[in-house]
Amino acid sequence: MEKTYQPQSIEQPIYQRWEKSGAFSPQGSGEPFSVMIPPPNVTGTLHMGHAFQHTLMDAMIRRERMKGKRTLWQPGTDHAGIATQMVVERQLQAENLTRHDLGRENFIEKVWEWKAKSGGTISDQMRVMGDSVAWDKERFTMDPGMSAAVQEVFVRLFDEGIIYRGQRLVNWDPVLHTAISDLEVISEEENGFMWYFRYPLADDVKTAEGKDYIVVATTRPETMFGDEAVAVAPDDERYKDLVGKEIILPLANRRIPIIADDYVDKEFGTGCVKITPAHDFNDNEVGKRHNLPLTNIFTDDAAINDIAPEKYRGLDRFDARKVVVEDFEALGLLEKIDDHKLKVPRGDRGNAVIEPYLTNQWYVAVESLAQPAIKAVEDGDINFVPKQWENTYFAWMKDLQDWCISRQLWWGHQIPAWYDADGKVYVAHSEEAVREKYQLADSVVLTRDNDVLDTWFSASLWTFATQGWPEKTEDFMLFSESDVLVTGFDIIFFWVARMIMMTLKFTDNIPFKTIYITGLIRDERGDKMSKSKGNVIDPLDLINGIDLDSLVAKRTSGMMQPRLAEKVAKATRDTYPDGIQAYGTDALRFTLCSLASGGRDIKFDLNRLEGYRNFCNKIWNATRYVLMNTEEFDCGQNGGDYELSVADRWIISKLQKTEVAVNQAFETHRYDLAAQALYEFMWHEYCDWYLELSKPVLWDENSTDKQLLGTRRTLVRVLEAFLRLAHPMMPFLTEEIWQKVAPMAAIKAADDEQTIMLASYPEADVEKMDETAEADIEWIKSVIEGIRNIRGEMNIAPSKALPILLRNGSEQDYVRLQDNKVFLQKLAKLEAIQWLAQGESAPMSATALVGEMEVLVPMAGLIDKEAEIGRLQKELDKALKDLQRIEGKLGNEGFIAKAPEAVVAKEKEKLADLTSIVAKLKEQKDSIEAL
RNA sequence: AGGACUAUAGCUCAGUUGGUUAGAGCGCCACCUUGACAUGGUGGAGGUCAGCAGUUCGAAUCUGCUUAGUCCUACCA
Length: 931
Prior knowledge:
Strand content: 15-25%
Low-confidence stretches: none
Largest sheet: 4 strands, antiparallel
Number of helices: 30
Radius of gyration: 37 Å
Mean pLDDT: 91
Number of strands: 29
């Protein structure tokens, strides 16, 4: 073995072996366990969120697979309507073409070409992550099976009246020319203006103040062509008399009424609101209440249409805004302009300002679907982890809007609806099916709806459509009710809720039993990672490493503003002055597991990753030690008599406890605790103590064959079990080592290939827990640590062998000493150990206490008197502080009376111990001072 | 505006149903290249658990308020 752990040389060859072996696909006939991957966007690349979620999914799947379950981790990607269409359109743009130049059919062909060539990026990256997904079952939301399921669902929902077509305001992206759902609109505060316009009153009416106009405030002057009323609050004294009167809409020279509506807040602005029912969601509601006409003033590009006076026609909305304001000013109707912060809605893909726009769209009426979906979570059929996310889910579900599912794109599932010449709509799987279903004559000309479905529509069918639905296939029966969904909170609405609704509707079953919501990985400063901020960390760079210049180049590429690029470059150089080292997949995975504590936000800390890379190296080197001492020898593979030392029994006992802790942590989705238990065991028990305790046995010429066999056997077997225990989190390293260690531990996997993936997952054996051995080792550790403390504090060279004396020990101490002398001598580097009988005198010494027993290190020539007094004083102060606290507690009558007996007894015991410690320390200090 | 969450060592975070001497990793200080490992070993320093009040024999843990920060939802034209 190499002297240090080199991840890059072991990982990918192992993955290739795994994938070839077929072990990723469901095995055997055990109980099914399935996890459906949240299908990543086919245009996407692996980001930290994926790496995090995939690591957890893979850890679960690997563990269940090792436990003998018939596991399926279903992979696949989603077709990402807008994103994919944009990618391909951008390619066309480079050739000065638009999709319209190609036509729909040719364009879609182009998209498929792109997918074949570039759509596999994320799959390749998943292989680097070690994801044990069933590649032979990989699905794509546009593949034939999924498409058939989508059609089936659409037709059924339409026939039931749950899907309908309606004309209403939608969020319109005037650049991408499509409707988007309200979830895809991001409203952020931006700086803008508030314009105050005078709207002249008609028929010589005057306000209470005697003015012949009223003033409305607006952030969107260009929409004034669509104004159908001016609203005031019903109880607003200022305008009470004007309700029912009319104003003359300037520029358009139309008469519109003044109405009273509760929607108006009389404290805000002037108390007068212009109402534009076709271009504002709130105004639309007001318009409905007052039967106002819907006057659309925009084209699909959000330019002014022919409703407006000629001068404004064809002007883009923002140009129109300028002209309108100028014209108001020219007419003397501009009262004032204030700076104003407002929320501007933008599309999450193209970033264009979204327009509320009147169009015909397809909707899903969600109410009947929502009820069972709420109930499934209320009844506990579906559980959120952490539980608090239920609230988020309920809050949204109970205030659900109908879901706009049509998109004016070319890439996606085209809606299976046809229209006749009169615009009557027919829905079925194909034109042929339509004619049959609705008994239409061949002479009736039908044209298909151009729109496609929202990508999330197909994604919502993921758990069952991937398993063969609507056929009741074996896969469908076994796996479609999956066990755990792992995802981020940002798509609870987009995906999780919709998946629950659709799955309950069409399979009468839940899509998953548990929803594990992960935290969001942020950068080292706690900022959300985003390309535009240039603070993205690519998980592959953590695995493979990247030099500083490449990292800077990567982060600043494609940045529009050079100034921003400069800032990003500087921040990157400050944070990663040496670039990023290659830490390997296992270290990254273990780090991610250790961060999975249920918190909402996770700051990614490179130091943590480095620490766990070092942990990998620790495991690697522990293995080297084990192999060096066992490879050439009998380790009990074929039986043979052996004898276990106290250290052997201790580490075996600790292993059982670790197995309990790790399994429990997995069951409760506390991957951080599992990681911590593994780390603690391997580093601080196995390496720090057990390996050291094995040396005196292995290197002692007087050790018997039975003792040697016992220790070698334990060394190998405990390591082997640890590897299986850790495998779900660090698959590559454990496989690599296991190949060498398992045969020596006489452990075999369930398959011919002999991969740790199919070896059994360790379960604790209560019989092997050994409290006596643990107490004995605790005693040994206390003695050694006492001596090491004196060495450390007194600056005694580690190479200097010390004589020690033991005083005031009990019979048990004596027995323990006799049994473990060698361990003490070796690990504390002792030259001699002398047991003092009661009353026997000792030379002046530094003291450590192990219970009642005093461990004495003679000071002669080694230890400075003052230093030892100082050290004792420090210990004394600490003990006295504790003593005081406990005395206070026990002096409290309420405590004695009301606390449980066990607690009181424990405090009393502590008091006794501390009293004795204090007395001994004092005595020791006094006698040294008396010198 | 409503709701949720967070606040523990210099940094990143654990801390189960209230009973601790409040832990870990990284960082820091001192010593050490001994035959698994300097991606290491040994020892050590470091915390009024955001603040205030309350419940309790007992609070990092439960309740209320305050402060600071984050997020979500709804938004004022």
